[in-house]
Amino acid sequence: MDIAPKLPATFHAMIKSSKWKERKEVLDEASTLLSSTLKIKDSPELAELSRALATCIAKDANINCVMVAANCLESLAKGLGSPFSKYREATVPLMLQRLKERKANVTDAIGASLDAIFATVRSSLLDQCFSV
C-alpha cells in the first residue's frame, strides 16, 4: 500500500515544531499508519520520511518523541522489506548517535528499529546472491 498520500499533510512542518506535543502528535499519527500497514509500497517520498524520523531520533530532546520516531522507522523497515536497505546510510548513523542515551526504554526502541533495518539489509543481500 502506498502510504505517502496518507501521511498528515503537515508532517514535515510539525516534526520540526518547537512544541514537543505537536511533534509527538504527528509522530503518533504516522506510527498508527505505519504499524497498521503490513506491506508498504516503495515511493520517493519515503526517503525524506526516513531521514526526518532518523533526525528526530538523533536530535529531539523529548524522549517520548524519540521512542515514537524509532517505532515509526521500525514499522517502515518491516513494511518495506528489502527496498528499505537503500535508506540505511541516511538513517543508521543518526540513530547510532543516540545510543549513548542512558534511558533503557529509549535504547530498546532504537535497538528494535536498528534490528528491523539490518534485517532489510540481510534480505537485500540474499536477494542479490540468489538472483544470479
Biggest pleated-sheet summary? none
Strands, total number: 0
The N- to C-terminal Cα distance equals 29 Å
Overall geometric form: globular
Write structural notes for this entry.
The protein has about 130 residues and is mainly alpha-helical. Helices cover about 70% and strands about 0% of the residues. It has six helices and no strands. It has helices spanning about 10-15, 20-35, 45-60, 65-80, 90-95, 105-130. Helix 3 (about 45-60) packs antiparallel against helix 4 (about 65-80), helix 4 runs parallel beside helix 6 and helix 5 packs antiparallel against helix 6 (about 105-130). It is globular. The mean pLDDT is about 90.
Topology:
Layout: H1 11-14, H2 20-36, H3 45-59, H4 63-80, H5 88-97, H6 104-130
Task: Supply database-style keywords.
mainly alpha; 6 helices; 132 residues; 69% helix; single chain
What is the structure about, briefly put?
By secondary structure, this protein is mainly α. It is built from 6 helices and no strands. Helix 2 runs parallel beside helix 4, helix 3 packs parallel to helix 5 and helix 5 packs antiparallel against helix 6.
